[in-house]
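Question (not urgent): is this output format expected?
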Amino acid sequence: MRLRLISHPPAPMMLFTIAFVPTDLHPLPHNWDSQLAILNATDLELPRSIYALDLSTWLTDVLEEVTFDVVALTVSAVFTDGHTEDWPLMDRACVNILENILDDLRQSVLRPAPSSPSLPPPPPSSPVSPVFRKPAKHKKQRSLLMQLVQYIASFLRIVKNANVLR
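Got this back:
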């Protein structure tokens, strides 16, 4: 879903995209699974994304774009099926919030970019040369095959001794 905020020139238009990464959720949460079963039973179209089943994200799956036009004082919503709805933007509190967002945007565009923090100077090089140690000698270990052979051999000796004692 794209959010557009159109303001009076020469202010820039603000564009913001909300996108959720597709995930493979198996098994689905119980309520999502129930909703899919209901959609299948009523022959309704299945959602294009699993996020349409979630109460907190369904709107991002249903809307393609929402435009807040502060100049024309309208809100326009384009749905994923291509249908468009327009409403007047009459709530003054909403207009004030949108204008505050635009003011913040203008200030951030006009404000010089902060200089990158300088890196601390490298530590002075030591006149002492590093000491190189001889790598530790690798201990020889028996292979798994040899361990199994030894185990079987000792087992056979035990069984042989047990048979001799009888």
